[in-house]
# Entry
Amino acid sequence: MSRLKVLIANRGEIAVRVMRACRELGLGTVAVYSEADRTALHVRTADEAYLIGAGPASESYLRIDRLIDVAVRSGASLVHPGYGFLAENEDFAQACLDAGLIFVGPPPDAITRMGNKTAARHVAIAAGVPVVPGTEEPFPEELPDDALVAEAARIGYPLLVKAVAGGGGKGMRLVQSPQDLLPAIRTARSEAGSAFGERAVYLERRLARARHIEIQLLGDHYGTVVPFVERECSIQRRHQKVVEESPSLALTVETRRAMAACAAAVARTVGYTNAGTIEFLLDEKGKFYFLEMNTRLQVEHPVTEIVTGIDLVHWQLRIAMGERLTIDPERALAPVAHAIECRIYAEDPDQGFMPSPGLVRALNVPGGPGVRDDRGVAAGFTIPLFYDSLIAKLIVWSDTRPDAIARLSRVLDEYRVIGVRTTLPFFRWLVAQPEFAAGQFDTTYLDSMLAARKGQAFVDVTDGDADDAAMVAGLAAWFRAHQASAGAPTAPSAGHWQRAARLEALR
Amino acid sequence: MSRLKVLIANRGEIAVRVMRACRELGLGTVAVYSEADRTALHVRTADEAYLIGAGPASESYLRIDRLIDVAVRSGASLVHPGYGFLAENEDFAQACLDAGLIFVGPPPDAITRMGNKTAARHVAIAAGVPVVPGTEEPFPEELPDDALVAEAARIGYPLLVKAVAGGGGKGMRLVQSPQDLLPAIRTARSEAGSAFGERAVYLERRLARARHIEIQLLGDHYGTVVPFVERECSIQRRHQKVVEESPSLALTVETRRAMAACAAAVARTVGYTNAGTIEFLLDEKGKFYFLEMNTRLQVEHPVTEIVTGIDLVHWQLRIAMGERLTIDPERALAPVAHAIECRIYAEDPDQGFMPSPGLVRALNVPGGPGVRDDRGVAAGFTIPLFYDSLIAKLIVWSDTRPDAIARLSRVLDEYRVIGVRTTLPFFRWLVAQPEFAAGQFDTTYLDSMLAARKGQAFVDVTDGDADDAAMVAGLAAWFRAHQASAGAPTAPSAGHWQRAARLEALR
Amino acid sequence: MKFDVEVAGRERSITVERIGETGRFRIVLNGQAREVEASPIDLGLSMVFVADGRSLDAAATPGSGGDWLVQLPHLDVSVVVDGRRHVLGRQGVAGGPGQQRVTAPMPGRVLRVLVKPGDQVAHRQGLVVVEAMKMENELTAPKAGIVTEVAISQGISVEAGRLLVVIE
Amino acid sequence: MKFDVEVAGRERSITVERIGETGRFRIVLNGQAREVEASPIDLGLSMVFVADGRSLDAAATPGSGGDWLVQLPHLDVSVVVDGRRHVLGRQGVAGGPGQQRVTAPMPGRVLRVLVKPGDQVAHRQGLVVVEAMKMENELTAPKAGIVTEVAISQGISVEAGRLLVVIE
# Structure
């Protein structure tokens, strides 16, 4: 009997993550890749890999026809969508089912109902869960401007323009006052169209000092839904999560249980199966509101895995293959540690977090106790322009939140990425902020802090640093010069520099 | 107020491990290094580093005078000995105290009593703990041969010759029959003299089908001793631990509690403080015997940290600084996962595990869930001849032992060390053995399996493998040739090969 | 060997001399002499200062034109050795006094051009939207002024350092 | 390009030709042609077989004398390309028929020499004890015979490949 294969319809760290789970369960792994990803880690990690098109996602990772074709050709039985790309696309889920493949995710109609942000709000209301005040229906593009302005006035400012098909902060804009409304809607529509192929948006009240708290859940095909201890994702830059942790400092055990019950109720209302997450906003008074549902695995799933000891991706695959969910619900709600995740991007924090793609020459990834390395990039890979620039997720944990922060600080100092700029200097700054240590933040915290810095660099080059850097460069130049003269008694690895210099010259 | 500094009187992975704990507790780190370790990871990880002598350990890491001198010069307040080298040397512990330094370990007299294997047996007997039958006193070197033969006959064959100052399988020899006794004693004395500077040996009965089970413990300066859930270390090659795990399949909860109580009793009898481990042999009937005590942190401590969530090195430092041990004893005895550690050595398993020192060109260290990387070697380091050739400890864990083994298999496939031969192929073989999966082994298992293989390679090169290797080499040669002709449109990283080839030529 | 280096806008000269055979060096910087143990590793250096034992683990990656990206444990900094920094750096603040040349800080695609020659722009007003990695990045005016040149058009791909807009 | 390769004792010839511009190659081995996508990465190669999608991530480190250490995911193997394997390999089984040259498999120090020229030795009898990394490693006779040469003496340091003993 040949073993079952899983097609992973994704790239980067999440594709590698899913393949690891497949290996551990004895399942074969089939990768797909674009022309920009020939040497990507997910290709190297897979048993099989198939080229599906050019670099732009619309020509490769978003091509449902090609993905289904590869699944059929390779003899895959299951398709795991990861997150992003087609993970919340009901047509893709349906196309998998139509081709006789098992889609590792919820049924297509659950994606449709929960993926559409306004429809999802209706579901939450039907399940008896409070929602953030906002428009109940999306805006058609032809709606006249004055109707938009009137609706916004009804909800009240500040408010958020959000893509109906949104996620990850894309197609989302904060509007403080009426004059900014129409440009914000235009930008959001444009970004949403480019990111999701769907330009519809809606409006939602911006709650003051709200924290982003979410409940992971799993559901099987026999009616069992298990909600998990919360994750807090309030550290956001421009609506994108930057740091996630579990548990949250802001929740009492009672609120946790209430929120978990609400999340499970929403999931049951739509016959949800597999992994999903219900996002809530928690206001200053400890009251929470349904925000939206993500009908897929999330970037930040590792923090939940660490604090509960439960492997969510294993369960995704096992549920998809028809297994019953046998997790003890009490275990899922009782964290045994405190975990924090940082998303390390190829972005230059000192240039407004501009993407910094390019060749990753080397990586020093920290190890030791309480560290998990979920990485999608290896040395020698050129990070392409076409996709999200996530290099790795760095997850640390310890007994308590202060211990986890001390560990995070240690680990960030060990981490080094050579070749491209990364957000590491930003995280080293963040971890030293008193508000972060105290857990005193809401979803606006980071943007306010960044705005107040007015572009100030995250690290100051002191005179001592400048001296150090000068000495390092001087020695490096010395070694390079002596490496060049043949037979000089230098250490062998100085040759790296010659190579690097020659490579630069070839560019 | 300047922060406290810790001198780490060691090298390799354990020095890095201790430095990480120091960082997390806000303590400064002072490294020492030999001329062979100028570029070692422990030097690069430390805040400060001091050269203490030539490559041979007797001229550097075993030089008490130089270590104390560095501690005083650098203003260190604490000295952590790691394991090996001077970790169980009472003179070193005393020299630290005499110089006003805090030795992170037990008091010198506890080292003296428990470090001497025959004295330790007396302590165990006094504490009411059963010991393995053997000689009660060490043999003076001038003891006539016939006295040795007579004593061995009294104990019975098979028996073990063991160094009184031993550890790590060094200075230990199995003797099956009388005619092998005297040569075994000679070799053991010689090895013990070279490894520990102490040639005394004693004899101990070799229990049939015994498993090696050990109890980690911590003791503070206020009389609290906390024993931990057991580790099993029965997978040994020539008396050296190769794989360690926690918990053991072979123990009932009642035996665990009984063994833990015995371990604590031994520790209390000698006024033990800080971290230590009591080793036991467990026979086929579930009866256990005191074997010896290690008065230091052990190589395999991470498996205990993982299954209990308790950081042993943090506690070593906190106890040394006078803190009270506040660990819940029930937590220390209740494993929340199953953890397995493999010691990855620079040895060639297909050449009788001969050391394979040399330049580590690159490392692919596996990541993802349930993996801990405790490594002492980074890319670019030349593993010296002078020391133990441990590259890294690879620790995996999951909910259950079968899941942990599935993960280990996945992780071993991801792991790659480029430049030197390693024991990775051996572990890939071991993890696939049915006895290993079933947990059916004792301390003789591995040596018997290896003997039965008669040097057969751990991997067979099939025709398919040979084809693959030929194609890889052919393509590599193609890329090198096209890299050499300037401006050829190859990917930049092919240059590595040119560099590598040039470096070879320089050797 | 003697090098002229420039780091963080400060020029200095540095002398590096090997002592004996075993990786020890004498470095003179700002007139101050230090002894260090230094060995190259991979793309970096391990350095230990003999006087106080300070250990410094740094990466040094050569760029084009004599500059090195030096990565100290807590910060990254460019150092120019015996040469000039490239005119087209990461950030478009090149150009003569009064003239600001706005360049692309990363490679990407020009999604929208928000100004045309002759436009009066305010400080921080949007000029060009460049898409990279699916995020829209709006490049803004580094100062108020008049747009004298728009060097790109909508839809084209740009490399890092490519001139986008000139403001006077 | 055409290469003669030797792997695991088997000789074969291999042709490698690039197809187009995008990292696709045609490889002919044992008369069988295959198309692969291949790109160099770091010290290795990422290869994908076009016919069945099989992905192969391998390291290839050049040694001296035309041999490569190829590291496939589950095994390491030496491949000689257009050349001869070095006479002094890892294991001392070089020498003419009837003659066995025992060489040092690793660098170390000769702790004890257990035989002298003229000694009759049995199969697997100990010849030399070499200490490396604090472990004593006894090198044994690969076959029964007579010691014709002892090329080292106690206490000296030896490199890997150094001749220790010859047995006939």
